[in-house]
Design goal:
The structure holds two protein chains of two kinds. Chain A is mostly helical. Chain A is 78% helix and 0% strand. Classes of the chains: A mainly alpha, B mainly alpha.
């Protein structure tokens, strides 16, 4: 690498001015090639392969995969579980962000660390936690068995495991956003006679809406795609306690060519969900970045002036 | 936990109450329950169950494969982050968005497609298997799956640091006569190193707990290609709850240790780029 550098240096010209802060074109080319090869092998090929394999036996076979009632029930169950887990974590995220971002209290950093805790726990261990609580030999096992309530190897356990796994998503996105907006606007609203709920609904919520959406789509993607934790508490009853990811596993394990295509067909729906999530996420990041840039540009020059006035004063 | 300063905003009691109750019911009580049950066992019993021959083989594979995967991600992730921040090439934004795929793609889908890709008939397997490289149903497969799931961590940890780095320092080094390679080794690399280590630790922590993608691509043979989370599931299916709990406690302790280590690493890393 050094040799190339010195050679270019001796040649002089336009490379000379940048020799210290930029790599030679050769090094640049090598690094870009390595990086892109890594991305192609580890990200692009696996993603393309999902769609390719699912359509490998034609579009008709692809559609027929979804006629299977067991696959349909898996799709319904996935939607049901996400439909319960995501709104609950949304309400929690809003409450936790309001309490931690708008108020000061002792132990705030500890509370925020505790909210992040589920991210550190292995999904399989997360599932086991609920078996220990509600399983046959668990703390409430006998009590539940006497009343014929099934939590483990049934839908309630799968909902609980999903809530645990997706617990931090909304809260951790909202807390920094709510902290950044401060409390002045809310206090102004309250002074002007708004009720607490009105303030929250008309002032706080609109100001954090993009952060909220960001947390929400990530939470939803994880809730629909969760495998390990749900697998532990599911019981794997075909047509009853299989979610889409569990259905993918079952079709994969039956190892016939037809079921393999069906596995990829279900997987393609989940991959599509991932792509849609990424597109929205990228859009939201681009939007936040642009708003940030605009604010950066506007503030130092004339913080009190409205943008339109600023432009006219600059042109004069 | 009373509000310290005067604060006119309402709803602290309600939201804080709900937060504490929800956090306790969903997270704290379940984790506490496992620890309480595990403490019910004697230390000797816990130790015996957590260190069976099968468990030890699974730990070796889990931690070994996670380490190799995190190391791969540290090297290629650093190059990728560098290329994405410093260079301009067509499709840069597209590649940047692709980096988040492992975060968004369900692990079962990742495992399914990776296993297919490296199988003897797969796009990559048809070339690699005749060369003797068996990516699917092997220990190498475990490394491949764990590399995939941990890929975004190093890139996403490094990118903001690279963007915030002051180019002036590199210009000074160049003015003082250092070549580009020398500047990189003596000026750039030491600044980036703590962040790369943080990304490595995040990627490693993610890999240790991973289950979904691995069981698709691994042949899951006890003592050979079986990871620790799978041992827990197998024990549960055989109704050996105490054995499963012993391994779960080991994984939980390691996860929390890694969490604390990562927090310390982040604090260490942030000292290296506190500018402006």
């Amino acid at each position: 690498m050094m040799e190339t550098d010195t050679k270019l240096l001796r040649r002089g010209g336009d490379t000379k001015s940048q020799r210290g802060t930029e790599e030679s074109p050769f090094v640049k080319g090598v690094l870009i090639t390595i990086a892109l090869s890594f991305v192609v092998v580890f990200l692009l090929l696996p993603l393309m392969n999902v769609f390719w394999q699912s359509l490998s036996r034609g579009v008709r076979v692809y559609w027929e995969s979804f006629v299977d009632p067991d696959t349909r029930s898996a799709i319904k169950l996935t939607l049901l579980i996400a439909g319960i887990a995501v709104p609950l974590n949304l309400v929690f995220g809003l409450a936790a962000a309001w309490a931690t971002a708008k108020f000061n209290f002792k132990g705030k950093p500890i509370l925020i660390s505790l909210i992040d805790l589920p991210f550190a726990v292995s999904p399989v261990v997360a599932g086991l936690l609920f078996v220990v609580l509600f399983g046959r030999q668990g703390f409430f096992g006998e009590w539940l068995a006497d009343r014929n309530i099934n939590i483990i190897f049934a839908v309630p356990g799968m909902v609980l495991a999903t809530i645990f796994i997706t617990f931090p998503f909304v809260a951790r996105e909202l807390i920094p956003v709510m902290e950044a907006t401060g409390t002045e606007q809310e206090q102004a609203a309250l002074t002007l006679g708004a009720s607490g709920w009105q303030t929250f609904w008309y002032v706080t919520l609109p100001s954090v809406r993009w952060g909220l959406l960001y947390g929400l789509i990530l939470c939803n993607a994880r809730a629909m795609g969760e495998f390990g934790a749900v697998s532990v508490v599911s019981g794997h009853i075909t047509g009853q306690t299989d979610t889409m990811p569990l259905r993918v596993e079952k079709l994969y394990q039956s190892a016939s060519a037809a079921s393999m295509t069906a596995a990829f067909a279900v997987a393609s729906l989940l991959a599509l969900l991932a792509l849609v999530t990424l597109v929205i996420k990228t859009f939201l990041e681009w939007r936040t970045q642009r708003e940030f840039d605009l604010a950066q540009r506007a503030v130092p020059e004339a913080p009190v002036l409205a943008p339109s006035i600023q432009i006219s004063s600059r042109s004069s | 936990m009373a509000a310290r300063k005067f604060n006119a905003l309402p709803g602290f009691g309600l939201t804080m109450g709900f937060t504490i109750v929800y956090l306790s019911v969903i997270v704290l009580i379940p984790i506490g329950g496992l620890i309480f049950k595990a403490l019910g066992m004697s230390w000797a019993e816990l130790w015996r169950l957590a260190t069976t021959e099968r468990a030890m083989a699974a730990y070796r594979l889990t931690f070994g494969a996670s380490f190799i995967a995190a190391f791969m991600n540290a090297i290629f992730g650093t190059i990728l982050a560098w290329v994405l921040v410093r260079y301009h090439f067509p499709g840069r934004r597209f590649v940047d968005a692709l980096v988040d795929i492992p975060f968004a793609l369900p692990t079962a889908v990742a495992g399914l497609t990776l296993a297919n890709l490296y199988s003897p008939n797969g796009w990559l397997g048809q070339w690699l298997v005749p060369m003797g490289i068996k990516g699917a149903y092997s220990q190498l497969g475990v490394v491949i799956a764990l590399t995939f799931v941990g890929l975004p961590f190093v890139v996403r940890t490094l990118q903001p640091v690279l963007e915030g780095m002051e180019r002036e320092v590199e210009e000074v080094a160049a003015t003082l006569g250092a070549g580009r390679f020398r500047t990189f080794i003596s000026v750039v690399a030491p600044t980036l190193f703590p962040t790369v280590i943080t990304g490595f630790a995040l990627s490693f922590a993610r890999a240790v707990g991973e289950y979904g993608s691995v069981i698709f691509i691994s042949s899951n043979i006890p003592r050979k290609t079986e990871i620790a989370p799978l041992v827990i599931i197998t024990l549960l299916e055989q109704y050996e709850y105490t054995g499963a709990m012993a391994l779960a406690v080991v994984l939980l302790i390691i996860s929390f240790t890694l969490l604390i280590a990562i927090n310390l690493l982040e604090r260490w890393a942030s000292r290296y780029h506190q500018h402006s």
